[in-house]
Amino acid sequence: MGTLQYLADGFQIAFQWHNLVYAFIGVLIGTAVGVLPGIGPMSGVALLMPVTASLTAGLPPEMAAASALILLAGVYYGAMYGGSTTSILLNTPGESSSVVTTLDGYQLAKQGRAGAALSIAAIGSFVAGIVALVALVFLADPLSDLALQFGPAEYFSLMLLGLCAVSGLGGKSMTKALMMTVLGLLLATIGIDNVSGVARFTYDIPDLYQGLEFLTIAVGLFALGEVFKTILENDHSSQEIIKVERILPTKKDLKDSAAPIVRGSLLGFFIGVLPGAGATLASFFSYIMEKKWSKHPERFGKGEIAGVAGPESANNAASGGAMIPLLTLGIPGSGTTAILMGALLMYNVQPGPLLFSDHPQIAWGLIASMFIGNLMLLALNMPLVKVFAKIIETPPQYLLPMIIAISVFGVYAVQISTFDLILLVICGILGYYLNKNDFPLAPLVLGLVLGPMIENNMRRALTTSNGDFSIFFTKPLSAVFLLCALAWLVVPLVLKRRGKQVVINEEA
Amino acid sequence: MNVRFDRYGSIAFALVGAFFIAESQHISTSAYGSQVGPSMFPFGLGILLVLLSLRLFYETFQAKYRAEGQAVEKLLYKRFLLMLAATVLYVLLLEPIGYVIATALFLYVTFLVMGSKSQWRSAVVSLLFSVGVYVVYVQLLKGTLPGFPAWLGV
């Protein structure tokens, strides 16, 4: 069966009415998550993971996994759409990948062109989403074929590459990012060892035999951590929200932003595919590129539509591109995709090359639903932008306690144990303090997800080589991955030493 | 950036690493043949974590680090501690007094702590939320949540 046939099957899955509903709920909540400052895509997806798990509980396992992933991915790219709304109307980015959008978007809004900026952002996001998806469709097969030839040594090195990439760009201090990665890997060793069946670090506490639950830790670190931050720092702004009048962009706006949208989509996609570099970097680079290529670089920062179109397309394309390593190789390249991977693992579905042959309905159903989801988002965002702008006014005194209640409900519904709830609260406090002091959380989550797999592959590789570590260097592909991993750590260090500013990827 | 947090944090992380190193020695070996047993991975990672923590500890003494200093922020500790206490109580009471009662109480109290002006509105919203979630999840989706306590006789 050809790729197109698979895609057609995927559409059949995506068009099932309950999956349409899930996709719609996903993108709707995603947009809201993007609009609300303080909840980024990572905490949004983490928060909804347990809720979807309970929603899909009645379905057969494979259908449940497909539906859950459709909803969660919808939240992910929906947040990319929504993030632009607050950047433009409030001058406060809803999430980190929309930071650059504030530069020109808010200026445009002040000139009374908020509607044009918002709709160009939505159109750009839509085009970018489609570009990324088309590329995903055509890259999925060849990439997973390639990955099928990987042995344990190659997998180990590839995962190491993923971890190094995320740590290298993970925050202000690489030492801290690496510490978080190692801590994540260490926490993943708690529980029964997969290979030998020996209990490790469990101390006869039954709750620990299964290991620390990924879901609990992710919800605690991200969702509760964010809530605690807002409670402590009281950073909900009470700024005037600029009114949106005319929604449709003028012909000139469309003409001016066509090229930036295409450039942003392509650039964003390639940055998204790279592990470690995510939507935030993509939007930064796109802005810099547009400014360089523009005939009027002096207009940037004063309300240039290209300064909205480029970055907004780039961050959406990056979120689509980030799905490629996750689906085809089984290696998440960012915090959010790590959480998506955790969700897949919860359903006992192993992302990676075999996903496309073992569970085609999940992989292709997801891809097809992303087409539909992007269409829904375009339809939602153009006329309803005024409605979404209202979400910003949700009173925080109601919102914050409810987020705590939803976190508790979600974790309890899946785990049914008070132990996990206590762990949740502890993780929330840790998440706040670590994040506040520039200990990035994404590497920790990535380490936690990849931990068992990286260990398995390492031990399998070492077993075949009788404990000889040189197997990782003598296999050519594995050696290449290791070299890349090293480069990812060394290059930023060298650049920093030379006094250059290194753009870092904060979230998403 | 907070030098103090980083300094004590690095010590704490080093201790965590040391703990894993020490405890990995007690992991029983298995019959699964090869030199790479279940203790190797945590042992190696523990060493890495200790080394990285030492590196961070060293970094905190560098001049650049100290210069950055810390901006004094006004943090709402009282509100935070109240919310935290409410959350902890909520989590611990969830099973003994059931989902609906615990959630409604938790939301009502925290709405007021967070500055909701209307007691009436807080009560309505918290009741709607807790009853709504319970009905949808337990009655419609057949999920499991702690019901009402037995002594209520509902």
TrEMBL record, chain A:
<keyword id="KW-1133">Transmembrane helix</keyword>
<keyword id="KW-0472">Membrane</keyword>
<feature type="transmembrane region" description="Helical">
    <location>
        <begin position="401"/>
        <end position="434"/>
    </location>
</feature>
<dbReference type="InterPro" id="IPR002823">
    <property type="entry name" value="DUF112_TM"/>
</dbReference>
<feature type="transmembrane region" description="Helical">
    <location>
        <begin position="20"/>
        <end position="39"/>
    </location>
</feature>
<keyword id="KW-0812">Transmembrane</keyword>
<feature type="transmembrane region" description="Helical">
    <location>
        <begin position="152"/>
        <end position="170"/>
    </location>
</feature>
<feature type="domain" description="DUF112">
    <location>
        <begin position="20"/>
        <end position="446"/>
    </location>
</feature>
<feature type="transmembrane region" description="Helical">
    <location>
        <begin position="177"/>
        <end position="199"/>
    </location>
</feature>
<feature type="transmembrane region" description="Helical">
    <location>
        <begin position="361"/>
        <end position="380"/>
    </location>
</feature>
<feature type="transmembrane region" description="Helical">
    <location>
        <begin position="326"/>
        <end position="349"/>
    </location>
</feature>
<feature type="transmembrane region" description="Helical">
    <location>
        <begin position="266"/>
        <end position="289"/>
    </location>
</feature>
<protein>
    <submittedName>
        <fullName>Tripartite tricarboxylate transporter permease</fullName>
    </submittedName>
</protein>
<feature type="transmembrane region" description="Helical">
    <location>
        <begin position="59"/>
        <end position="79"/>
    </location>
</feature>
<dbReference type="Pfam" id="PF01970">
    <property type="entry name" value="TctA"/>
</dbReference>
<feature type="transmembrane region" description="Helical">
    <location>
        <begin position="116"/>
        <end position="140"/>
    </location>
</feature>
<feature type="transmembrane region" description="Helical">
    <location>
        <begin position="477"/>
        <end position="495"/>
    </location>
</feature>
Automatic annotation (TrEMBL), chain B:
<keyword id="KW-0812">Transmembrane</keyword>
<dbReference type="InterPro" id="IPR009936">
    <property type="entry name" value="DUF1468"/>
</dbReference>
<keyword id="KW-0472">Membrane</keyword>
<protein>
    <submittedName>
        <fullName>Tripartite tricarboxylate transporter TctB family protein</fullName>
    </submittedName>
</protein>
<keyword id="KW-1133">Transmembrane helix</keyword>
<dbReference type="Pfam" id="PF07331">
    <property type="entry name" value="TctB"/>
</dbReference>
<feature type="domain" description="DUF1468">
    <location>
        <begin position="10"/>
        <end position="146"/>
    </location>
</feature>
<feature type="transmembrane region" description="Helical">
    <location>
        <begin position="120"/>
        <end position="138"/>
    </location>
</feature>
<feature type="transmembrane region" description="Helical">
    <location>
        <begin position="40"/>
        <end position="58"/>
    </location>
</feature>
<feature type="transmembrane region" description="Helical">
    <location>
        <begin position="79"/>
        <end position="108"/>
    </location>
</feature>
